[in-house]
Amino acid sequence: MPEILEVEAARQVLAACALDREIARVHAPDAWFLKRGTTAAALRHALVGASFTAARRTGKQIVLDTSTPSVRIGVHLGMSGRVIVDGTEAGDPLVYASNRAVSKWHRFGVHFADGGTFMLRDPRRLGAIELDPDESRLGPDALTLTVRQLDAALGTSTAPVKAVLMDQHRIAGLGNLLVDEVLWRAGIDPARLAADVTADERRTLQRAIRTALRVMTKRGGSHTGDLPRDLDVPCPRDGGALERRRIAGRTTFSCRVHQR
Ligand SMILES: [Zn+2]
Is 90 exceeded by the pLDDT of residue 96? Predict the structure, then answer.
């Protein structure tokens, strides 16, 4: 499933390959994929004859700015969406094992006047395209998260620390796998109340987030963490038994020994 690292990889492909090319046609065959009142007709009106001018990202939301003043396109990859520009596919193929080159899964895309294409291929159809997305509701981006921002996000919340880290309004970009990984690295029990995470632990957690995202980017994506998601495998740090629970509605793995 695409996490922030895969979304950033998709953004980089868009930024490198999809900008400043005139859009000749819009491919939007699936009304269900268009969200928040967006229609195929509105997308055609906004995009034909224009070009994308920037590919930005906050958390897991990509925003394409366009040469038409005030027109922006929100791109959500969902659970299986993949960006393809001129046949180049963003992200590690392992993450996208279910995402084969099947054109009926092209839920949205554009044909450029130069003959190339940008397509969003999404077998599970859980991604979305929207015109003029609301960018104000997302918290600070996880890839550049500071101690101060993490401290503000955790605050005095009485929710489990895992729930707060996954709340996109508080911190944008951390999904289930990444949150388990960073809490394991920081030695913090995912069920602890956010308010009870000490100042020292918050600093440790911020470093764990930055380090984990950097290391996993180098390794190739969000599936390359060190925390095994398998109860038959001992904790790589101390050999302790791993635990599987449901926290914040999600399957959660942690170490019984070193996560407190
Ligand atoms: Zn451990």
Answer: no
User: Residue 97 above 60 pLDDT?
Assistant: no
Please give the pLDDT value at position 88.
78
Tokens of 161: 């620390």
CA–CA dist 75, 126 (Å, integer): 11
Tens digit of each residue's pLDDT (9 = 90 or more) over 148-163:
999 999 999 999 999 9
Q: Are 130 and 38 in contact (CB under 8 A)?
A: yes
pLDDT at 63: 97
Question: Active-site positions?
Answer: 2-3, 60, 250
Give the residue from 35, 61, 49 showing the smallest Cα distance to 136. 61
Say how many Å lie between the CA of residue 230 and the centre of ligand 1.
13
Beta partners for residue 130, in sequence order: 74
Cα 255 to averaged position of ligand 1 atoms, centre (Å) = 5
Annotate 135-153 with b (16+ C-beta within 10 A) or e (fewer).
eeebbbbbbebeeebbeeb
The Å distance, Cα 170 to ligand 1 centre, comes to 27
* pTM reported for the whole predicted model: 0.88
HSE-up of 142 (CA within 13 Å, CB side)? 30
Distance of alpha carbon 221 from alpha carbon 2, whole angstroms:
9
